[in-house]
């Protein structure tokens, strides 16, 4: 199970953080919100993949998509991807966005300090710790 690999990795990587742990169908890990507009980060073990929900903005699925991996290899790969994403998110290296009606949402991971090249005036943008201002 992904959580058997993921929970120890989260405890190790985010030692000292306020994290709530639980078992499916509840989130296996919940990080408190840094700002109300973004909300909490919920990490789910969906059996074959992990899902990260950024409560008030968007969600994403983490699955290597390689059916040749063993279950242990899949769990390790998913765990690494989740940890890498969370580190980037909590270091404001992920730009979160959503439309006011929440029908369009997602994220862009920064490749450099320059940020994204083009932003849409129809979307709201956030970093983990604060609203994103251009």
Structure description:
By secondary structure, this protein is of the alpha+beta class. The protein has a domain at 2-92. It has 2 helices and 8 strands, in the order αβββββαβββ. It has helices at 2-13, 71-90; strands spanning 20-21, 29-31, 41-45, 50-54, 58-62, 94-98, 105-109, 124-126. The radius of gyration is 15 Å and the shape is globular. The protein starts with a helix and ends in an 8-residue tail after the last strand.
DSSP summary, beta strand count: 8
Radius of gyration: 15 Å
**Beta-strand residue percentage:** 15-25%
Oligomer: single chain
Outline type:
globular
SSE order? HEEEEEHEEE
The largest β sheet comes out as:
5 strands, antiparallel
The total count of helices amounts to 2
Are there runs of 5+ residues with pLDDT below 50, and where?
Answer: none
Query: How are the strands ordered across the major sheet?
Result: 1-2-3-4-5
Helix share of residues? 10-25%
Which secondary-structure class do the elements indicate?
alpha+beta
Average pLDDT score: 92
Roughly how many Å apart are the termini?
41 Å
Short description:
The protein is α+β, with helices and mostly antiparallel strands and 134 residues long. The chain has a domain at 2-92. 24% of the residues lie in helices and 25% in strands.
What tags apply to this protein structure?
24% helix; alpha+beta; globular; 134 residues
Q: Could you outline the blueprint of secondary structure elements for this entry?
A:
Elements: H1 2-13, E1 20-21, E2 29-31, E3 41-45, E4 50-54, E5 58-62, H2 71-90, E6 94-98, E7 105-109, E8 124-126
Antiparallel strand pairs: 1-2, 2-3, 3-4, 4-5, 6-7, 6-8
């Amino acid at each position: 199970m992904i959580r058997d690999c993921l929970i120890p990795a989260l405890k190790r990587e985010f030692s000292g953080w306020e994290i709530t742990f639980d078992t499916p169908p509840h989130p296996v890990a919940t990080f408190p919100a840094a700002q109300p507009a973004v909300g909490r980060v919920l990490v789910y073990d969906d059996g074959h993949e992990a899902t990260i929900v950024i409560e008030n903005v968007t969600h994403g699925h983490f699955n290597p998509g390689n059916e040749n991996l063993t279950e242990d290899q899949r769990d390790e790969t998913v765990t690494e991807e989740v940890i890498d994403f969370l580190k980037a998110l909590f270091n404001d290296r992920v730009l979160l966005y959503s439309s006011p009606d929440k029908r369009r949402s997602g994220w862009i991971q920064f490749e450099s300090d320059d940020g994204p090249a083009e932003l849409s005036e129809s979307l709201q943008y956030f970093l983990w710790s604060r609203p994103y201002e251009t």
